## 1
Amino acid sequence: MASIAPLLLAIIFGAASEPVGDEPASNFQPTNDLGQVVIDRVQTVFERKGALVDVQQTFQLSCRGGKVFQRDSGYMIKLARGASEPSPMGENDASIEIAADSISVNKPISQAGLIVSVRYNLPIRNNTVILDQTLGTEIVEARAFSVWTKGDVFLSGTGFTSQETRKLANGLETLAIFARNLGDGHLVVRLAGLSDGIQKPRSIFTLYASIMILALGIALWLRREVSTRR
Amino acid sequence: MNSFGQLLICIAALLSAAGGAFVLLGSHKPRFLETGKNLLHAASLASAVSLVVLVFLLLVHDYRVVYVRDYADRTMSLGYLFMAIWGGQEGSLLLWAAIQTWFTSAVAVWGTGRKGVDSLLPVALCFLAMLQVFFFDLVLFHSNPFEPLGTIAAHGIGLNPLLRNPYMAIHPPTLYVGFVGFSVPTAFAIASLVDRSPENKWLISLRPWILFAWVFLSVGNILGMIWAYEELGWGGYWAWDPVENASFMPWLTGTALVHSMMVQERRGMFHGWSLFLVSSTFALIVFGTFLTRSGVIQSVHAFAGATAGPYLLGLIVAQAALSFGLMIWRRKRTTDSPEIEQVVSKESIFLFTNIILIISALFVLLTTMSPLFAEVLMGEKVAATPELFNKGMVPLGLILFALIAICANIGWRKPSLSKIGNRILFPSLIGFVCAVVATLAGAALSGAGGLMGYAPVVSIGLLGFVTSSLARDMTRLIINSMKHDRSSKTARRRLGGQLVHLSVVLLFVGFTGSAFVEEKSLTLSLGESAQAGDYQITFLGLREDNNYERKAVMADLEIEKSDEKLGILSPAKHVYHSHPGQPTSEVVIRTEWTEDLFLVLGEVDMARNAALIKVKINPLVVWIWLGGILLVIGTIIALVPPNWLGSLFSAYVAKKRYLAKVSAIIASSVIVSVSTGFATNLALSMIAIAGMGLLGMLYFFGSALCGISRLEGGE
């Protein structure tokens, strides 16, 4: 059975916290090597098998005063082996659709967010079921997307100019071009800012605390029982 | 919102742990006990609110949550969205934990100030609290219904089509109530063994709890049978599936416990038996849950992808070690009781009944586990078939059935043998005549060999024997109770018990009918007719019936019997949009008093307008369902005292502090939810109810803190 190498792709746009417009944001450092960076990153985790790319639209966001000011069009990278449409999907097809769309103007970026639509197939392996899910075609709240750099540092911009978003879009396009050679893929789109990292510590604390409280209670009771019997 | 739900589970777990510790320390200091009870009440409200949050997430289709994505979709109706709470492992475990907290709260209220039970309350509540902590931590770590997806799904997958049946709306919750209900006598059993007092009357006080749990377990089993009969499409209601057996085994030992309790109440005997049966029943309940959720045994009922096995196995080992270890340590106290004075006596029959029930439970357990044992020990793959189960359970069932009648004709202690003989003569004759008539009518199954072939004859004979015994006993009971009003409470209990036995008669009528099932497969084209039993079936054609939820292909069949047109029945095949690869059969059942006509649509050929129709004629099935109804009625009569309304009011007045608080919370929740537009905005109502629950939780937590501060003040 074909093996699947995971491709971890996380794209983060930070929430705007200060007015931006045509002026560059204070802490975003766009790089001309963005595309190369993305390719390098993907290369470390992905095995080339080949896929078609259908770049349908371009996308950019303009922000002003922490709000989405202008939206051009959505950006979609669609990969499908032997087809321009993602369905029906074959056993070894992988598809990623990254679309930013349906963002209302004059809304804070924390409410605008981005839509990430990821569609992927896992081939049958050990009689497991093929998963075929389209994730996320609705507006999500306060989701940040970032592009990984070589040093695994997230680029979390506080707002982007048109020029910056165009560069980011170029990075995505580069990814798409690279992913033309994509084969089987396990695609994970991770949205930062979610609490999945917070859940585990809370659960661990609860487990340890509840056991300790009960153990303490039982120990004190036993001590009392023994002393009473004496 | 899902983070909030998870936070509530954490809070509930911590409150349960703190409550358990405080109630345990309350065995020496009453104020600790009050504090602990308040903490446990707060935990029960926290768990209730967490369920409300889950309902809210399902109602608003929040597909950022894994559980909502997996078990809800936009085509599901409101009822099924609620049902999705227990549609998956995560939600069902949270529901179990929540029910556990509610039972603990109820025990805390009920046991306070009750003679014989009050002294055992601290340890019992601590045990129940530990169970709560276990289930909450299992939910947190292993099966979290509030797990975030990490992104947002465009749509949900929705409930498995097999679960989209009204009986699935009530079958799991009733079973869980039964399962959790048996944790209460287990807790008190452990408490009594830990306690230095030799008082054994606590079990009698727990009678309502045991009966309550038992009847819910019974109803849960029967509802599961109805669901299987209607939904699975194979025409039967019991397949000895491992998950079915998982709820049947504790029912067997629970039934033995109910009988054992009667002997203890009447004669002060069987205390050791009762303790053993209490512990075994709960161990089997957890073991059954282990089977359902561990994946060790394949079953159509098992939760998909479930791997909570190791934790549940740990719970079984811990509980069994604690219960049986304490029993061994206190064996002198548990075995010291009056002896049976005569072999032929009611006590003996009860003892024999217990032994048969335990053997039955053991047989079911070992046969269910035999595929696993065979694979592990011998490397062979074997299947535990229904025929194998029937070979063992049919004779055992018939023996138990006979014991019902024998017991009704035998008295306590040292009954006169001649009187027994006189009483048993007439029913025996009736039974014998029934058996002879059955044999002459060809009831013996020539296909099945040996004893199994005569099982229907024996069953019919026993039906006559048992029915006539019960009828005479119940008539005598009613007449006596009308004459001597002072014994009405006892008479009510006995009448209720005999009604339950009568329900077993009805069940056996249905079970006997299953030996005479007729089955036929018909391939019909448009306009063609075929005969199946006494029915003439004419195929009128195929049609499609699609809606937002599913696509359906239906076959219209005109049914005639003895030249009388009975109408048109339309079995169907459904394919839900959310589960395109899982077509389900929607069977059609035409029920009469004597038989069911069961129709299943098999393969269809739309082009040629032809279909394969499976026809099954199931005799006497409706008597099983009637037996279930009678079982509930009988238990209610046995359980509820004659002046129940007055007793309830007295209890309310006596415990008005606690009940007033609970009533106020419930009433406020109802009022607020109605005023926020229950009918039009259910999601908003959920928020209102959650708010009320949180206020209640804070109230009890505050009371507990006040209690702690008074303790620190040296009061």
Note: The two ends of chain A are 70 Å apart (CA to CA).
## 2
Amino acid sequence: MTTASEILVIVSLIAPLFTRLNEEDYTSLTQNEGSQVLGYVPTWRERSIMQNELFVPGMPLAALPVESLYKAWSTLPGSSYGSQKGLYLGDSAHHMTALCAQLELDVPEQFKAMPDHLTLLLEVFVLLFESGNRNAACQFASDHLDWLEDYQAALESRSDEVVQASVLAEEKRKTLVRGIEQVRVLVGVVRTSVAHLINSHEARYVREPLATVGDVR
Amino acid sequence: MLIPDVSRRAFLKGTAATAALAAAGSVSFGAWHTQTAEAAGSNEIKQAPSLCNGCSSKCGLMANTMNGRLWTLQGSKMHPYSKGKLCGRGHGFAQLAYSDERITQPMKRTESGEYEPISWDVAYSEIGDKVKAILASDGPEALSIVQDPRPSGKYYSQRFMNALGSANVYTHGAACNLSKESGMTKTIGTGNYSIDFSNAKMVVFIGRSYGDGIRPSSVESLSAAAERGARIVLVDPRLNNSGIFATDWVPVVPGTDLALLLAWCNVLVEEGLYDKEFVEANTVGFDEFAAQVKEYTPAWAEKICGVPADTIKELAQALAKAAPAAAIEPSWRAAFGCAYANSFDTARAVTAVNALLGSWNEKGGALITSSPKAGELDKAKFPSVPKPAARRAGDAEYPLVLSSMGTNLAVIEAAQAGKMKGCFFYNSNAVQGYSQPKVWREALDKMDLVVSIDVQMSETALCSDYVLPECSYLERLEVPEFLGGKKHYVAMRTQVLDIIHPETKPCDEIFAGLAKACGVGNYFEFTAEEYAAAELATVGVDLEEIKKSGIVELKDPNFTYGSVAFKTASGKFEFKTDAVGQAGLNAVIGYTPRKVMPNQDEFHFIGGKQGIHSHTMTMNVEALNAISREYDLDRVWLNASDAQKLGVAEGDTVEISSSEHTGKTRVHVTQRLMPGVVYIPTHYGSSSPYLTRACGYGLNMTDFVPFHTEPAVGSTMSQEVAIKVRKVEA
């Protein structure tokens, strides 16, 4: 049985895996004591191949987990571009910027175009929950983590594209498919974890074990 | 399962005291949204000027931002090209700043042909090493740059390449308006002129369509002229979208406009309708021209161009009657910018008609105006770059090429000969848009170094060893742009948005970084802003002033009707130019056939623009792509009677094939196209998988056209091809 604290640790461990990491950070994340919860851990080479395709903007297979890309750019009145999707720095990004300022958090330069990146969204969620401000955490999740199903669909679509991409070498294709699947499963774990947490108002033991990431092969 | 409390990797930094988090009040998006929407006074609204990058018109615009985000755009009221309006591309292309498919960091091609992100330091260092290696082994003549001119790009491209010792600086002109500008420069001493629409009684367009290749002020002028009752004649195989302003549509066999123009000259001369006084005082070579033009009768022309002899005669007589308030519009790309083997001569013939009408610099006629330029700058701060020793590649082989453009196809020819080892591309998608893509790819593959500076992974970027990401035009200030005409202006692109992706840079910084890595950084020790301020000071304009308005009117050039200066070798309008004869063409303006004539079972193939797109640049923009898909704008056009013979109905799929390529697409059946011609909009058929909305959508015209060059000029001959069409059964 898993406590809320442990769920938060899982989410915290997973959060950085949605962004490009250097080898040192990746090794540190995946080889520490708690990383067994991550299940199958790609090697650095496999991870490098996957993240250079999936997490680099502008690559043909790029699927950045950035909230703005999955929602209408702005619902504020007067914008000429409000209904567009697939654009960075939409309303959700501006809300995150305002929120981080309110919470005295600095958004790193590498996320300047995407303060609503899933890695940062999960960090804020965990910080709010751990501080005891469960109402705020639940509100935050409701506002900013409601697009993850669309993101999983985008990942599935990328996976299909990879399977059909005859220009890619066989080994690379397999590595990418596995890598994308791992990301998809991690998103699933995040969704389940967050859902468990916001559905309970008090920290309590969860009856059923969470789906693990060990299903990735 | 107990999970140990492990140390976690966090990206967000800051004090983030538990107290602040615990005490955080409303974090609700809804509350923020309401507050932002209702707090009109506290939202930071700003306005900043720029120049649109949706096409090369660079219309002035005012960008409105809210809390640092692009909110709306308006055309600059003062800018002579926009006059308060922007076209669809202007509004749509701006969203590229936020696009999910921009390149956001330097990329390097690996051995397997894929791309991986690298740092700027690595990019500069490796490119610098490769450039130095090429300089050492083959000299600066083995390096080149191709750019589609923009204010900063054209300055820095030239400066960078010249600093390396190379004269090989080319524009996109060989695939745009090189033939037209080269030809006109020989007859009138400049590559372009304008039409005095506000006073014109009759204007003839040869292929150009203001309703498709939109510049707002041009459409406004044309509309006003039409409202006043001017006769507007469209000579075009296709009834293009300027048709709503036209009085006449004159379908012409593609590539034979020259015959039509010379037949008009024949009527004007033979019937004594030409302006004898003007010709006597202002031209050279008329006697030889008049002797030659005798054979170009309307009956002769009808057999070539398909326009009935009576129509040809009537139009010539009407032009004469309306003169001098009558002229042939100069065009841009369209029918003779670069399309045929006779495009250079067609451009000369256009100006010859205007000369015979006596319409140069007359009210309602064809106006040659002046352009302002900056004064001398402090050489200590902005040192001059030594003139390269060797001549630009291609200039000897194409002696009539306009010196300000060069022919970028010389890069291919030099690469094929093993002489061109490195090429840089700025704001240029040469591979897809200029000429036969296969030939471009093969040529670039032979080189040791290819570098693209762009905002998206175009087909040219995909042939490059390194791709360097520029920030979008809204995120950068550029050096001043001087505008000529009856009034003179200086305009500028200013920075509207903060840089969105931190690893993108404006081109001035990119070129400065490259220059430093290549050992010529001493010529780039100033910022674009410092250069802009210095240039503006020479014309009495303050940088801070232009940062607010975007455009300042300069000293009145005192344009006067009735007075014209031709900056040709003779100082006059040249019906005959010796240099043209020396280059192997007819020194006297005369007839040259086009190179390729379709057989009985083949079609002419012509391209054209759509008002919401620019070449290959805009198709990946979500909103503009969506319009194309909504209205099936990728379809090729086929004449209704041709369609009937082929058994093709509206929306059917056809296969188009040429000597180079075969492709399938859907067809639009129409009466707005003359028989024997297939029209293709030239924005489709991207093959870059990085541009997911554009990739594989429609056909690309250049895939069908062989690689060849216009004699003596070097244009791409973009429409010299015959195609076959057949229905694809379901």
Note: The two ends of chain B are 60 Å apart (CA to CA).
